[in-house]
Specification:
230 residues, alpha/beta, five-stranded mixed sheet, disordered C terminus
Amino acid sequence: MTILAIETSGKYCSVALIHDGLAEFSREDDIEMNHARAIGPFVESCLEEAHRKEWKIDAVAVSTGPGSYTGLRIGMSMAKGLCFSLDVPLIGVSTLKLLAVKAMFRNIEWQGDEILVPMIDARRMEVYTAAYDFRLDMHLKPTPMILTADCYDMLPEGREIYFMGDGAEKSKQALSGDHYHWLDNINPSASDMTALAEKAFREGDFLDVAYSVPEYIKEYEARKSAVKGL
């Protein structure tokens, strides 16, 4: 099984070639919000590597968000175009679930009953967030949330809660408790989509190539320019 994975929901664009359970080849940008320029060359490099190794692309996986509105549109458009041209199915990977799964693979002595809470920065004291256990059952569905002292009180009592993602750092200003913990440097990457993308492929869990859209969660709000006439 070979899957071309595209991640554009975060600050950095990345594309990976996943083959039989491993991310065998990847390209990741080091320039923030450079998705439009980087994605084409990155995809081309991955396709060339697949051709060199004589691997047939079986599906294209793309991060569906939430995250950067512009980045999500760029990634989804590229993924759809590839699916049409290669005649392969489209797999959608939730960015929040992706962050939770990446945290699971951290070298931590997990007990297995912890709750993983990914957070994506949504400006000011707002984040896009969700909560998962180690079976990836949702204890909080993906939602925009204003960070307050009691905003996660609905999660199961007596469980250790771990926060991760680029919105987690600012949550330290609002949240406190011995059962709260923070994991650094958990960011979305195409290479980390392996487990979720292959699971979706095995289960036939595909998106409609024609009509699927990113999971923005919150409608885009245009900001009025301070310059008259703009």
